[in-house]
Amino acid sequence: MLMLLPSANNVSVDIVMTLQTEAFSAMLRAQNQRWIDRKIKAFNVLFTLYNPPTNIFTIVSFLTEFSASGSIITSSSTESFTIYRTTTVVDYFIMALKVSYIK
């Protein structure tokens, strides 16, 4: 699915895909529809991964910026986290111990 999301001064193309080939073909469609051309100022690829055995989510972001002088600035970030399931009093106690250990 290729969605167009307008915002203040830019346009965001949101591609929701599960397979690499689907994502690649969606990027080609965006380029053919002239969303990706020589006038582009920034290109951000953001995706989320989930590992069920460890219950860890990972967000990966790759950003490429094109300056007016013609230079290319790239950056990337990765952030992993888990979502705690707190259904009982024991779960809340374990979560409190983990939070106090982090501090």
TrEMBL record:
Keyword NADP recorded: no
GO molecular function: monoatomic cation channel activity
Domain Polycystin positions: 21-83
Predominant cellular place of this UniProt entry's protein: membrane
GO biological process, alphabetically ordered: calcium ion transport
Membrane topology: Multi-pass membrane protein
Keywords: Membrane, Repeat, Transmembrane, Transmembrane helix
Protein's cellular compartments: Membrane
Gene Ontology, cellular component aspect: plasma membrane
Record family assignment: Belongs to the polycystin family.
Listed name of the protein: Polycystin domain-containing protein
Lineage: Eukaryota, Metazoa, Chordata, Craniata, Vertebrata
